[in-house]
Amino acid sequence: MRAVVQRVAEAAVSVEGKVVGQIGAGLLVLLGVGQGDAEADADYLAEKVLHLRIFPDGEGQMNLSVLDTRGDLLAVSQFTLYGDTRRGRRPGYSAAAPPEEANRLYRYFVGRLREAGLRVEEGVFRAMMDVSLVNRGPVTILLDSAKTF
């Protein structure tokens, strides 16, 4: 499972011109589910996202997590995080999980975030989405659960 985590001042996701998820200060999480991923991968990433110390403390040092700041989260499913560009010019997506399994694990991941008691907004699984954000910092972190086991 892979995630791109961005610290944002605000973020929103729209489908067909209608805002379906919108947050203030917090984290935008683009989540990709790969072949063979399981709940353990989602657990790992949810814990990592919630506890990443990427928000400034009173001295401007990145020492606080989204839990510490009581920030918002916006989770957006993005299978293209498993795009393989090693051959040719068109990415291949065979490493991405099938849609049914990806949706199940995406829902599980979002549930784990919600258990923390923070506001969690979402995109729409398998929809063409427009994502807008103001990246604060900028701070962008790449996470991959396969690099931990």
Key attributes of the depicted protein:
two-stranded antiparallel ribbon, D-tyrosyl-trna(Tyr) Deacylase, Chain: A, alpha/beta, 22% helix, single chain, 149 residues
How would you summarize this macromolecular structure in one to three sentences?
The protein has 149 residues and is α/β, with parallel strands linked by helices.
Radius of gyration: 15 Å
Shape category: globular
Largest sheet, in brief, is: 6 strands, mixed
Question: What name is given to the CATH topology?
Answer: D-tyrosyl-trna(Tyr) Deacylase, Chain: A
Low-confidence stretches: none
Give the % helix.
10-25%
CATH architecture: 3-Layer(bba) Sandwich
Total number of helices = 3
List the SSEs and their pairings.
Elements: E1 2-15, E2 18-23, E3 26-32, H1 39-51, E4 55-56, E5 62-64, H2 66-69, E6 72-77, H3 99-114, E7 120-122, E8 129-144
Parallel strand pairs: 3-6, 6-7
Antiparallel strand pairs: 1-2, 1-3, 1-8, 4-5
Helix pairs in contact: 1-3
